[in-house]
Amino acid sequence: MSDVEHPEVNEQSLIAVSQKGDVTAFNRLVILYQERVYNLAYRMLGNSESAADAAQDTFVSAFQAIKGFRGGSFRAWLLRIVTNACYDQLRRRQRQPAVSLDGIIEETGDVPPIASNSPTPEEVASRKELAVHIQKGLLELPPEQRIVVALSDVQGLSYEEIAEVTRSSLGTVKSRLSRGRAHLRDYLLRQPELLPSDFRHKSRGK
Amino acid sequence: MMSGCENAAPLLSEYVDGRLPAEQREQVDRHLGTCSACREDLESLRATVQLLCAMPVMRVPRPFTLAAPAPRTSLLFVHLRAATAAATVLFALLMGGGILVQEAMAPFAPPPAMLQYRATVGTAPSITGTPAPAPQPLTVTGTQQKTGADQAMRDPAAPATAPTTTGPPAPSLAYAPAGAPAATMSTPAPSVIAPALPLAAARAPTAPAAQAPAEEVGGERLPTRAATPAAAPTSTSPPPTAPPQLAAAPTATEPGREAASAPRTPEPPPTVAPEALPVTVGDPSAAEWLRWAQIATAIAVLILAAATFWVWRRPWKS
After folding, report:
1. What is the DSSP code (8-state) at residue A71?
2. Residues of B with CB under 8 A from a CB of A
3. How far from the centroid of its chain's Cα atoms is residue B134's Cα?
4. B52–A149 CB contact, under 8 Å
5. Taking CB atoms and an 8 Å limit, are B44 and A200 in contact across chains?
6. CB contact under 8 A, B44 and A199
7. How close is the nearest chain B Cα to the Cα of A141, in Å?
8. How many CB pairs under 8 A join A and B?
9. Best interface-test mutation with B: which of A159, A189, A199, A204 has the largest number of B CBs within 10 A?
10. In angstroms, what separates the C-alpha of A206 from chain B's closest C-alpha?
């Protein structure tokens, strides 16, 4: 998902037209980015409803702010807005803790299976279960680590881009990523039965 | 520089990403060769990253595209809504102000009348010249009754020559609202009323044309009034009995006014009595103006509200 290709030229022209207030052009950008935006929000919030709200807020804010976009990475600019929208959602949730964490995570069960060549029903089920487990682990991380891990390992952004999105230094990105990954790994190892058999023996590079 | 696990551990994440500078990478490699625990950590970390990379892509539950006209209309809507609110507030102020003014007018005359009134009160003796202009314009625009009132107001000074006996009744007449005064007057001093009405009628027709001149020539009017009062004087004498009734009516509406009016009343009384009949003229013009303003504002509120509603509904259709 993180490797969806966007023709740069097309994107630039869409941005330019959007900056003149053209909603139609902006909506084409929305279509290009909505999956990425929604998925980042989902990983941050673990709840499809909150993630959809955050994604919608993101595009509304983005359209209002796009006149102020001064070039550079549009993706980073947009993901920064998502990040802020997610923090808003988390703050809102803190104020109304009516929704239990368990309730939130249950919804992760809707995760569609990874597109795979020939997944058996068992594989699909176990993958779904694993995805829920990983999502739970992500939600255990402090938000500032969670966002870095999600941007790096789910969204595939470089350290530099993550630093741009989170408005932090490279050093901060690296240390948060390192701690976040380590925490998540420890969390996953607490229930090794959910992990693929080769968890400890994978040697493929990223 | 780094040989222990505590030094290698924080670098494993970057190591996995291949982002370690060559020198540090070699050091980590060297440590890994001697530390199976760190090798395990590295592998589990790498596996974690791979699991994250393989996380399923969630399908978007709904498109997040924006409604095309929404932004523009919403801006228009905001402005319209603000305009509607402003018009409504203005309307409320006009209505509230109208009530206040009406109450105030019972004792006083409308704003213009007030000016005259003050002039007369303060300068009563010499007033005739100065006050006349102000009241005149009011009377012209307003109804005949009003003009009469205005005249009465300024007359006080001019009429000074007139008999003082009527003093009390005259003031009361001036206070009384346009409508009320006539009725009250009729009861107390029939003879007086008769002249007054004719006067008012006569003035109404002449007033329009006279307006401009009237303002300029306060003196001119006075003469005419003097003539009318002259006839009235006889009637004035009876009024004394009437005054109490009149006074009562005004007081009911506004006690404070009476006090204010009291001072001037003594001076004007003589001439006032006859002229008092036409007195209330100034008020109508102001009241009418206010009424038109209220109507116009109400229409504006309705139109704006309708436009706001229309704009509000439209975006959702598209």
Report:
1. S
2. 9-14, 16-19, 40, 43-72
3. 24
4. yes
5. yes
6. yes
7. 14
8. 140
9. A199
10. 7
How large a percentage of chain A has pLDDT more than 70? 81
Q: Residue A184: helix, strand or coil by DSSP?
A: helix
- pLDDT tens digits, one per residue of B251-300: 444 444 444 444 444 454 444 444 444 444 456 677 788 889 999 999 99
- Please report, to the nearest 10 degrees, the dihedral formed by the alpha carbons of residues B301, B306, B307, B310 taken in order: 160
pLDDT score of B289: 86
Which of B16, B57, B67 is nearest residue A206 as measured by Cβ atoms?
A: B16
Give the residue from B143, B127, B120 showing the smallest Cα distance to B279: B143
ipTM score assigned to the predicted complex:
0.84
CB A62 within 8 A of CB A85: no
Model pTM score: 0.51
Nearest CA in chain B to A48: B61
Phi and psi dihedrals of B171, rounded to 5?
Answer: -55, -45
CATH of domain A8-194: 1.10.1740.10
B5-17 and B22-34 helices, crossing angle to 10°: 120
Q: What is the pLDDT of residues A66-93, one digit of tens each?
A: 999 998 999 999 999 999 999 999 998 8
Which chain B residue's Cα is nearest to A53? B64
The Cα A137–Cα A17 span in angstroms is 41
If one counts every other C-beta atom within 10 angstroms of the C-beta of residue B34, the result is: 9
Of the candidates A58, A112, A182, which has its C-beta nearest B45's C-beta? A182
Token pair of B156, please? 């006080």
**Chain A residue with the nearest C-alpha to that of B67:** A23
Residue spans of beta strands (DSSP E) within chain B:
none
Question: What is the per-residue pLDDT for A93?
Answer: 86
Structure tokens at A46: 């673990």
HSE on the CB side for B114, CA within 13 Å? 11
The token pair that represents A114 in the structure block: 């990874």
Q: Would you list the domain boundaries of chain B? A: 5-53, 97-291
Q: Given an 8 Å threshold on Cβ–Cβ distance, is A60 in contact with B46? A: no
Q: Is B117 in a helix, a strand, or coil? A: helix
Q: How do the domains of chain A map onto residue ranges?
A: 8-194
